[in-house]
Design goal:
Layout lengths: L1 H33 L11 E2 L2 E2 L6 H10 L9 H40 L5 H20 L10 H22 L6 H17 L5 H21 L6 H62 L9 H18 L3 E8 L2 H8 L1 H16 L8 E6 L2 E7 L3 H18 L13 E8 L7 H17 L5 E3 L7
Parallel strand pairs: 6-7
Antiparallel strand pairs: 1-2, 3-5, 3-6, 4-5
């Protein structure tokens, strides 16, 4: 048993050492995971609060990341869907902040334009640009409502189309005078904002930019004005091309970050599983190291820990401790007569009877060694002690473990009982020794009986 305990402790330490390097890498991430503080890019596996059921292996994700066999779309539909879910949530959070700053910027630019344009153009400019600003602001307000989250791409795109179309139309249809340059500058800002700062995926951003431009040009001709193509191409066209390259770089880097966060998630999950498995293994090893393999009761090493703990608790609270030491009568002869298998079976049956009378806190049973067992009770008076002892004898008689060579024809045991209220002048070891003395007295007085140590508090 001593060797088994040493091996168990060594193996437990070995398991913990093997995990230490791996868990050190994931410690901060695991804490963030438990506190729900991971960045949005890590939360790819949730959509509207629901877990996405698809999950790829680490090798699949690594292959996609290394080969980079994708442009605007992952070649795995499940992975692409998870990416879009994550990207949408991140974009909504980003737009709540960027939208506020951009609104202030465009209000400032609008105020400057208003000062520069001719007086007879002020009414038309306010009619179109200010109206469009409020319409776009309405769509921006939807990002604050979680109920509209799933339609983010749609309403953000519509808002962008309205902003571009209005700006193109106003720049070509209303005489802006000195405000023309600043107004076209505002158009380039709108294009850059839609491609790079709203959070639209690049495909939708391109659609928004082209559709807004076409709609703005169409409105210009519908209202009988001419498009200033040189200025339009030099501002809107070039800004769209530059913004497209920027958006592609952002999209590609975002996808790389997503794949890396996916791998991080898998590593954390694997480490968590390893940790849970190791904890279960350590718990099992700890339990095995504290249990007697044959009877399932606590072993002597664990008994020493428990009785010391209970002794200090009883000493602090000044209540009684009871030790019952049990020894199966003539067990060596039983083994010789009935065989070792029958002897083992006898020990298990007696152990079962003993364990059945220790259920509450402060009650403990253990195999002390060989055919000896110990029961530990706390805060029990002498009457309850004797009732418990008599119950054990009654249960043993009912079990009727056959022993043909003794007078009564069945297995019996002797018991020594020691009771005390712990004090500084006494120790737990002495309490066990007193129970042992009482046990030998029970044997000397004919066996199949119990004796209480005469120096006990209740003797």
């Amino acid at each position: 048993m001593k060797k088994s305990c040493v091996e168990s402790i060594y193996f437990t330490n070995r398991v913990n050492n093997l995990l230490e390097e791996r868990l050190a890498m994931d410690k901060d991430v695991q804490i963030a995971h438990n506190n729900n503080t991971l960045p949005p890019s890590y939360e790819y596996s949730k959509c509207g609060g629901d877990e996405v059921r698809h999950e790829l292996s680490e090798s699949q994700i690594s292959s996609i990341l290394v080969n980079k066999a994708w442009l605007f779309y992952f070649n795995n539909d499940a992975l692409e869907q998870e990416y879009r879910n994550q990207y949408r949530r991140s974009a909504i959070k980003t737009l709540r902040f960027n939208g506020t700053l951009s609104s202030l910027l465009f209000i400032f630019i609008g105020a400057l334009i208003l000062k520069l344009i001719p007086a007879d153009s002020v009414y038309d400019w306010i009619l179109y640009d200010v109206s469009a600003f409020f319409v776009v602001s309405f769509f921006w307000g939807l990002v604050w409502l979680s109920a509209f989250e799933r339609w983010f791409d749609g309403y953000a795109s519509i808002g962008g189309i309205i902003a571009i179309a209005t700006s193109v139309f106003v720049n070509n249809s209303i005489p802006l005078g000195d405000g023309t340059t600043l107004s076209y500058t505002a158009l380039t800002y709108i294009v850059l904002f839609i491609y790079c700062f709203i959070g639209l995926r690049i495909q939708i951003a391109v659609f928004t930019g082209i559709t807004g431009g076409i709609l703005g040009v169409s409105l210009t001709y519908i209202f009988g004005a001419d498009v200033k193509w040189a200025i339009f191409n030099g501002t809107f066209g070039i800004a769209s091309i530059l913004a497209l390259f920027l958006a592609y770089g952002i999209d590609r880097q975002t996808r790389v970050n997503f794949l890396q966060s996916y791998l991080l998630h898998l590593n954390v999950k694997q480490s968590k599983n390893m940790l849970e498995a190791s904890e279960a293994m350590v718990s099992k090893l700890d339990e095995l190291s504290n249990r007697d393999a044959l009877t399932g009761l606590a072993n002597r090493r664990y008994l020493d820990e428990i009785i010391l703990h209970e002794w200090h608790r009883a000493l602090h609270n000044q209540y009684s401790l009871v030790v019952m030491m049990i020894d199966i009568d003539y067990f060596k002869a039983f083994n010789d007569t009935m065989g070792h298998l029958a002897g083992d079976d006898c020990l298990r049956k007696v152990a079962s009877l003993i364990s059945n009378v220790t259920h509450r806190r402060g009650e403990f049973s253990a195999r002390y060694g060989g055919e000896e067992f110990i029961l530990l009770y706390s805060n029990m008076d002498i009457m309850s002690v004797e009732i418990q002892a008599q119950k054990l004898y009654s249960d043993l008689a009912d079990a009727n473990i056959i022993y043909p060579t003794v007078e009564c024809g069945r297995v019996t045991f002797s018991m020594g009982i020691s009771v005390c209220i712990p004090s500084a002048e006494m120790s737990a070891v002495q309490l066990i020794q007193q129970a042992d003395i009482a046990l030998y007295k029970a044997k000397a007085n004919g066996r199949n009986r119990y004796e209480v140590f005469k120096g006990s508090s209740y003797s």
